[in-house]
Amino acid sequence: MNSNNGQWSSKLGFILASAGAAIGLGAIWKMPYVTGQSGGGAFFLIFVIFTLLIGLPMLLSEYIIGRSAQKEAITAYKILAPNKPIWSWIGKLGVIGCFLLLSFYSVVGGWIFVYSGVSVVGGIIDPAVNSGDFFNQVIGTPWITLIGLALFTIANVVVIALGVQNGIEKANKLMMPLLFILFIILVIRALTLDGAMEGLKFFLWPDFSKTTGESLLYALGQSFFALAVGFSCLVTYSSYLKKDVSLPQSAGSVVILTVFVSLLAGLAIFPVVFTFGMEPAEGPGLLFMVLPAAFGQMPFGEVFLAMFLILFLFATLTSSFSMYEIIVAALIEKLKLSRTKLTIILGVVVFIASIPSALTYSVFSDVSLYGRNIFDATDFFVSNMILPLGNLLIAIFLIHVMDKNLVKNELQLGSSVGERYYKVYRTLMTFVVPVVIVIVLVYSLSNY
């Protein structure tokens, strides 16, 4: 048993924590603007298909590896392949990837912290304030971005230091239901707007004439991001799981919740965008620039904007918890430090490592890496190289290195799935998933 960090107190706690790890910037920030840039309904439908055929088997694979080993990511691969220590590099790659991801993810989390605070006191929606100028001021002012980064880092350190049950599980049990409640309120408000039907048609009606090879690849990548697979975060999370919990049922629940939030994000955003004549393909600034302008034209717009930003902050935090946890769990035995001390040290290191990305749009605005600024280069390297590589290695490990009977037994333990389910799962992991991942990886490398 993974004794250092405890267990989940319940299956619900594990599912909400796994969903929290998955539901973050990918579902709420990235999904709407990528959908907007990729033609709307056709992209969303393709994303759902890829999430079921590729994301779900990968999620299940991380669960199987973690619970069968009952150890965090690096040690798990050592235990399951004792004579092949090189495979422990999958876990190490996950730790490195999570650290690099945190170095720019925390920056966006800091922006959201700033926006949430300002929106609560009514400082964003103002006739005298241009939402685009305000966003540029936030990201372009060093002390504002660093304060936001510090607040986001402190929030993570406090929760992770409290441990699995008292920290991560309790936070997710509070934040995830609130996230769904706030989202549903926002969707109801959005659907009552005059231009709601036009936004719904754009988001839900598949128009495959706008589908390109690039949008297909974006959909594949989004299925990875949406479920947080590839960094072995969920290997660590599932190592705290009891043996009587059904892995297929848990994975299915997380997939349904993740797709549901992605659906809610579109339902909340596109009716607003179309009602007020905004551009759905706005890009990464959609949430920070377009929505404040749109909410500003609604009755009680400041209230709804504050609700949306707080919701977004919750989702961002629950995802970052999983990134911190995989690093803490991997280092706690090796360094022989208490969880609290190690988490504080990690928080300081992450804060320092995040400074270049935080100052990308101010002090380091002239710095370029492969034609990209520091923030975008780090994002591209992590999201389009390390993440697909991690998924590919996990797929190869599960099919060609792990004991087949162990995989089958772990899949069926605590569940009612039969031989047919196992065969479909193994077929997908053997033939479909690796081929798709290689396509994504090759495309990413060719565009770096």
From TrEMBL:
Domain of life: Bacteria
Membrane topology: Multi-pass membrane protein
Residue ranges crossing the lipid bilayer per the database entry: 12-29, 41-65, 86-113, 143-164, 176-196, 216-240, 252-274, 304-332, 344-364, 384-403, 424-445
UniProt cross-references to InterPro entries, sorted A to Z: Na/ntran_symport (IPR000175), SNS_sf (IPR037272), YocR/YhdH-like (IPR047218)
Keywords of this entry: Membrane, Transmembrane, Transmembrane helix, Transport
Entry GO terms, CC: membrane
Places the protein is found: Membrane
Protein known as: Sodium-dependent transporter
One Pfam family linked to the record: SNF
